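The freezer alarm interrupted the setup, so I double-checked each line after restarting. Inputs confirmed:
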Amino acid sequence: MYGLGLAKGLIVTAKNLVLPSRMMTVQYPDRKVGLLGLSKATDTSILNLLLKDPVTSFKALLGMAEVKENLPQHPRFRGEEFIWYEQRCTGCASCAKYCPLGIIEIVTSESGDQMQEGQKYHLDKFDIDIGRCMFCGLCVEACPYDALHMGSGFEEGQYRRQDLVIDKRRLVSAKKKPSTWFRPQLSSKNYDPQKGKNVKWDGAGRHEKPSLEQQQEKWAKR
Amino acid sequence: METVILRSGFDFNGIYGFLDGFMPDHLDWLVFLATSLILAIVIINAVVLATALLTWFERRLLGRFQSRLGPNRWGPFGLLQPVADLVSLLTKEDTIPEGADKPIFTLAPIVFLVPALIVFAVIPLHGGSFLGRLNIGLIFVIAITSVNTLAVFMAGWSSLNKYAMFGAMRAVAMLVSYEIPMGLAVVAIAVAAQTLGLSNVVLAQDVPYILVMPLGFIVFITAASAEMSRTPFDLIESDSELGAGYHTEYSGAKFALLQLTEFMAPIIVAALVTTFFLSGWRGYGPIPGPIWFVIKTFIVLFVFIWIRASWPRLRIDQVMSLAWKGLLPLSIVNLFVIAIEVFIFNPGADGLSTKELWIMTGVNWTITIIVIFAIFNLLGQNRLKRPEPVISPLANMYANTKVIKRVTDMPEAE
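Predicted 3D structure, all chains:
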């Protein structure tokens, strides 16, 4: 009555304008920043920025410098680009057997004539067809040696279907930033694939790496 | 009223006088032509540039009002977005529907645009307007701005499209209705200022008329936002019902012209509101007059965008009833009150003094509150209050009979 409802509506939108907490939009994959935002994002002082990179800082003065923006994401996110450690893999093909879709193809050959304990098969082929993958993570659960981990990416769009098949070469060369899904040894260290460093093969395992003495003891008993 | 002639220098007389010094007398017609051309080019370019900036500003601000960002990718802070829009519109195919009335279809955007540009010739930025001091500015503005009704109807009629036709019919009904309260509000200003010239209206405002006649301000700003068909009165082109309204069939450059005029309208109205109610270029301190004018216009534009972001659209019957039942009585009351006060004070050639204006302010605010209270009680939601529900005799008909009693009193089955 008396137009008070109209005033209420105006106040709601004015709150949207004034309060920064009301802003819902997340900018992705990059956002445009001014000079202050750029110095905050690159963690350098404004003076440093002006001296080091005058072109970018001029762009920033116009508000046109771009800063890459990652979407906030949980460390246990089950994403694409599987992380695989060749050093840990024995070629047992557990992952291929557990895969409900049968999209992992493993071909092995004997690596020597007389196989000893501790030796392993040579992997000729390790293909994962992520075009049909549903990211259930059963292969990661099945791996007895923690050689296969889920990745954390989601930007693996390709123009051709055959490009979606991740072969051994790509698996080896991929960035080793595993998701901590089903890997308590990583999540207990509060590892975050977005911010953390690459994890080497001996750091990704479930168990501590046995020392030389422990190994010698084991071999001696035998 | 003070009769000091303030000269901005950059108006028709100034440029004409400047150019006339170089030319022999028999070439006066050439000087006249050159002056007109210079003024036209400057005004049109300035206004179109301001409109382009307004589209950017409006979209950014609307975004923030709706808790999103608005265009921010193209150019610094998205400032080049209007350029991108323009390129996108101009490179599109300019189609004319089969069966359309081609000459009128082509003419409509021009008829729409030209009056909007002409209005800027008389708006006083400092002292005088670009045309000098037009002594019938009020009548000129009212006459010129109502031409766009014709253009909207031309566009809707010639498109051979039922939605365009609906939009055009609504436009004619609505715009013609809102002309009347708007005109009456302007008449009240003419009565109070004792003049028809826009710059004289500003000179008469020792107290801004938004304080002197709040009722007139409310009526004018409501009617004006209906005239330029913006939310909450944008049912001419209500996209949920009509597609796009009268410009459904337009594309390419013609559509660009229509959109340009649509976005120019708020600037015109804001400039008029500034002139009529916010005492135009007059301000305080060392800031020059045109800057004050732009600041005040900007504030009015902000309010328009704020309203657009907040309020829902009215239905066509609500719009018409608001015009005839709400604004028309308000504007008549406003005109009568102002006229009686001017009659009592009986100002001479100097107009109303500041003291008299302050007295009028006190009286008019009281009257405004009373009148608005009355009109809300007459037309407001009291009339629409939901009546007490009466229980139908048919429903629940056995409530008090013995039959039901017997059922409820029945011993529980074992």
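Quick read of the result. Chain B touches chain A at residues 61, 64-69, 72-73, 75-77, 306-307, 309-311, 372-373, 376, 380-382 (CB under 8 Å).
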